[in-house]
Amino acid sequence: MTGPSSDKESGMTDPSTDDGVLVVASGDVATLTGPDGVFLSVSPACRRLFGWEPTQLEGKAEADFVHPDDRSALRVGRSALVDDDAQTTTYRFLCSDGSYRWTETVSRRAGSDGSGLVVSAIRDISRRRAHTADLERLAFTDPLTGVANRPVLMDRLHQGLRRLRRSGGVLAVLYLDMDRFKVVNDSLGHLVGDAVLAQMAERLAHHLRPVDTLARLGGDEFAIVAEGLADEVEAIGLGERIAGAGRQPFRIGAETFECTISVGIACTADSERSADDLLSEADLALYRAKERGRNRAEAFDEQLRTAPVGRLVTERILRRSLDNAGLVVEYQPIIDLQSGRAVGAEALVRISDPERGLLLPESFLDVAAETGLLIGMDMQVMTDAVEQVSRWRSRLAGRSPDHVAINITARHLADSSFPRVVIDQLDTVGVPHSALHIEITERILLEASNSAITGLRTLRDAGVQVGLDDFGTGYSSLAYLRQFPLDFVEIGPMQVA
């Protein structure tokens, strides 16, 4: 086949009809077919579009040049021709080199004498179809691996649950995470990391049936929806095969290394289950697999639902909370016992998690500190606290608490820009600097560097109150504390021998 495509997003007008006459645009192929569907006349444009000479088509059935899968569309379109109404049909047309091109054909009856003659204008729409296919791929697939994306996975999961009502069996969701993938990215670079993700997607697809859906959720996380399983045992077997796919070494260029995979499995035979709940259960099972050593598959069970949250699961919850506004700041009033007035409040952080409810600090602060997430949490708490003081001052008019207290970490003290961040936040909302009290623990104060002490003095000189929290739980004396820039000291719980 020769010549360029004539699909004119290039400015060509659409084939149209006018007063019972088919108007054929320049570049379209005009045809006349008899009642038996045989070409009687074909315009020379077919040479450029499809590589055929007109005489090679004339006398032959139109259906012989239509892709077998599209012949039903041709029949339906022709049977719908009535009176002077035009019909548009889309199908693939055979080219002289054996390939097929997508076409759009507008047809109508030639006259009203009952002869059964049909006149058509055939246009090549290959480029348009390819562009549409590209847009669909962008909308529904992960561009790096070519597998489905999260919206497609959730749609398939919803459909699978609906099919359970009539098909029975078991539906499984498998949540996958590559073990220590960050090490690969950090040590070998993102190009190698991307190649590993693409190879892993290929490996996973090799273990799936046509009815299963594989999706990349983001980063190094994948998920699978598997329908029509006999029972949970079959789902666990699939999970173990998936875990095995990561045990084979990866070879990227000159590099050879391992990057195993952990799998969490959630199963149901109940069509009324929530898709989100199933995905969450698979996620919890995944983190049990991580806690038990990685490179394995684990299934969700009721014990997991009621078991204490492990450190990895806690980290997961923390990250979600920071990303999705899951932090809750509560305010504990500070009361003047003589007047009974709330003179201040202490900001206390909580986490609101859809699965676990309201989590108190003792369940997550250690993990937040170990993972470096505590800094982001504290900044969110400070922003909320400063804005809350502003709201109190505007709404309570003279009856509002004078200040709000927040705790800061050693990492904040070590950051030379921290004092300026605090002062800028107060100035942005128009709150006096004295309305913010910053509290640090005795241990952090005693370990603070000279630059950290300088930062505290900068805050204190700007009017921010600086205090020591839980004094007495350590070993320092009041005399020793006099050398630090402090405005107040809070006495901690007494230790009785």
Mean pLDDT: 83
Which range best describes the helical content: under 10%, 10-25%, 25-40%, 40-55%, 55-70% or over 70%?
25-40%
Strand content: 25-35%
Radius of gyration: 35 Å
Tell how many strands the DSSP assignment holds. Answer: 21
User: Runs with pLDDT <50, length 5+?
Assistant: 1-20
Structural class: alpha+beta
Terminal CA distance = 96 Å
Please state the overall shape, judged from the principal axes of the Cα atoms.
elongated
Largest sheet: 7 strands, mixed
- What is the helix tally? 18
3D architecture notes:
Helix content is 39%, strand content 26%. It is built from 18 helices and 21 strands. Helix 13 packs parallel to helix 15 and helix 15 packs parallel to helix 17.
Quick rundown:
This protein has 497 residues and is of the alpha+beta class.
Topology (SSEs and partners):
Elements: E1 16-18, E2 21-23, E3 29-33, E4 39-42, H1 45-50, H2 54-57, H3 71-79, E5 87-94, E6 100-109, E7 118-124, H4 126-140, H5 150-167, E8 170-178, H6 181-188, H7 190-206, E9 213-218, E10 221-229, H8 232-245, E11 250-252, E12 255-257, E13 261-268, H9 275-291, E14 297-299, H10 302-306, H11 311-323, E15 327-335, E16 342-353, E17 357-359, H12 365-371, H13 374-396, E18 403-407, H14 410-414, H15 418-429, E19 436-441, H16 442-447, H17 450-461, E20 465-471, H18 478-481, E21 488-491
Parallel strand pairs: 13-14, 16-18, 18-19, 19-20, 20-21
Antiparallel strand pairs: 1-2, 3-4, 3-7, 5-6, 6-7, 8-10, 8-13, 9-10, 11-12, 15-16, 16-17
Helix pairs in contact: 6-7, 13-15, 15-17
